[in-house]
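Run log // design_07
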């Protein structure tokens, strides 16, 4: 029997059989493997002592936020102007007295609610890029349509666990209003957890208001429904745009990842030990601030770490120095007793080529081995973060699927021990037709949706596609097959009305 284009039914069936089975969808990873401990107990104590010395002798500046200065002063810190100094151990004691070791972030679909902390791990998409890239249209400024398409794409990828935040920056929407459109897009086109607006009190307050509409006031107050990131302006500065949003989220019992940005050689020392001490000195006071505002509010310590090229001044990725820093930061977070937030699929490559995959694979693997509980930038990142790629997103999500399977460890159940199969086959036989193989072959191995493991002849007959072309076909099909998750009509109407009223109250601003 011939297909209308001349392809036999048997060949179609064989081609369908080669297609990968969908990776197992889980709301988050329950890590069953250990972490990589790069520092000894002595080394960890030294870093902690050095961080305490920095906080006591140098201090940290909290700029433009008198309320934060007053909060620290009442807690016993030494406040002079905008500089705050802390006695050794003060911030650690505040954090350890009330910060939870793990918490739940609720999704509007309860099946996608995630645990953050202890042995869990969450993969979250890329964040903040003004450009997008795909094979069909190349690199271009991102639009709201691109934003919505990325949210839809991420929703279809089973190895991702979170919808993220600014998955790209939609520059066709006024800058003072786009956070509203982005939040609404996450809520309508995904049923996973999402990140609230980060820049200033108003963005955070709008995020809280919209989440309350979605989850209900009473539920929202007692449960974590939003995730937020608070970045320092290293070295040792926190501006009021970040502290303003932190206060809103902490007061509302929502999660804040306290995340210094360590561009080593520029924003921190060019050595791992110096960068780690500065990182901890910046993260500890911000975590402490969340607990001073509302004891028990969920918080994480996080790090964005990479090296600067000493030749050009540009950030570099996939370097061994940043890997060592992230591994050690994970150990420090565990000692502090709070969840750990870091980043994953970094690259400075402009397209999803070999460089991109080498650097991104290194970054994601290091993040998982560090014990990170929330891994942002887990897919899509290109060009040092300036660009998010559609093909890159599905290639990275494939890698996330592999790491998810790796993190499950080795199954030692009776069936997986396969003694009966070895007995059946015996010496010199093969396992292709063994009953155990026939019962398990469909799920025995991870099957990549982007890789090609066929013969050269079969690959050539299929048109000789490279991985970018295969990823282009995959993401296009995923978007074509996307189905919007249902949402209560009354809630949708109330959210859309909130956004419309807020946008109408402001004049457009594009800078």
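design_07 sequence
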């Amino acid at each position: 029997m011939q297909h209308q284009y001349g392809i036999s039914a048997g060949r179609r069936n064989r081609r369908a059989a080669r297609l990968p089975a969908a990776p197992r969808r889980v709301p988050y990873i329950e890590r069953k493997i250990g972490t990589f401990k790069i520092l000894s107990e002595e080394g960890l104590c030294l870093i902690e002592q050095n961080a305490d010395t920095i906080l006591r002798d140098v201090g940290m500046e909290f700029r433009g936020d008198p309320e934060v200065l007053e909060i620290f002063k009442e807690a016993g810190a030494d406040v002079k102007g905008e500089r705050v100094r802390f006695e050794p151990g003060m911030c650690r004691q505040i954090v350890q007295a009330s910060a939870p070791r793990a918490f739940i972030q609720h999704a509007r679909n309860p099946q996608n609610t995630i645990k953050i902390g202890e042995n869990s791990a969450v993969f979250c998409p890329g964040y903040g890029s003004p450009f997008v890239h795909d094979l069909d249209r190349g690199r271009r400024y991102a639009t709201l349509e691109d934003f919505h398409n990325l949210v839809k794409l991420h929703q279809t990828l089973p190895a991702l666990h979170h919808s993220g935040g600014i998955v790209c920056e939609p520059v066709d929407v006024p800058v003072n209003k786009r956070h509203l459109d982005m939040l609404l897009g996450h809520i309508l086109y995904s049923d996973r957890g999402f990140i609230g607006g980060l820049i200033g009190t108003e963005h955070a307050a709008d995020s809280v208001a919209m989440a309350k509409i979605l989850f209900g006031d009473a539920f929202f107050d007692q449960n974590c429904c939003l995730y937020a990131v608070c970045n320092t302006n290293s070295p040792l500065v926190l501006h009021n745009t970040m502290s303003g949003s932190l206060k809103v989220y902490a007061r509302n019992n929502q999660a804040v990842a306290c995340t210094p940005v360590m561009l080593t050689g520029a924003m921190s020392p060019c050595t791992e030990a110096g960068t780690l001490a500065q990182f901890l000195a910046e993260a500890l006071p911000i975590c402490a601030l969340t607990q001073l505002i509302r004891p028990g509010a969920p918080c994480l310590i996080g790090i964005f770490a990479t090296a600067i090229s000493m030749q050009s001044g540009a950030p570099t990725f996939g370097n061994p120095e940043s890997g060592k820093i992230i591994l050690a930061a994970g150990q420090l977070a565990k000692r502090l007793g709070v969840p750990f937030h870091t980043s994953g699929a970094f690259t400075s490559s402009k397209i999803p080529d070999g460089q991109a995959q080498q650097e991104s694979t290194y970054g994601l693997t290091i993040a998982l081995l560090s014990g990170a509980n929330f891994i942002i930038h887990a897919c899509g990142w290109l060009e040092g973060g300036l660009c998010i790629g559609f093909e890159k997103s599905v290639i990275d999500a494939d890698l996330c699927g592999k790491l998810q399977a790796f993190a499950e460890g080795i199954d030692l159940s009776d069936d997986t021990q396969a003694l009966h199969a070895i007995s059946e086959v015996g010496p010199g036989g093969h396992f292709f037709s063994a009953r155990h193989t026939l019962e398990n072959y469909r799920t025995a191995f991870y099957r990549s949706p982007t890789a090609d493991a066929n013969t050269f002849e079969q690959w050539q007959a299929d048109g000789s596609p490279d991985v970018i072309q295969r990823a282009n076909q995959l993401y296009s099909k995923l978007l074509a097959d996307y189905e919007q998750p249902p949402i209560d009509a009354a809630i949708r109407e109330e959210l859309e009305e909130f956004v419309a009223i807020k946008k109408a109250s402001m004049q457009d601003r594009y800078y």
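Residues 415-481 form one domain.
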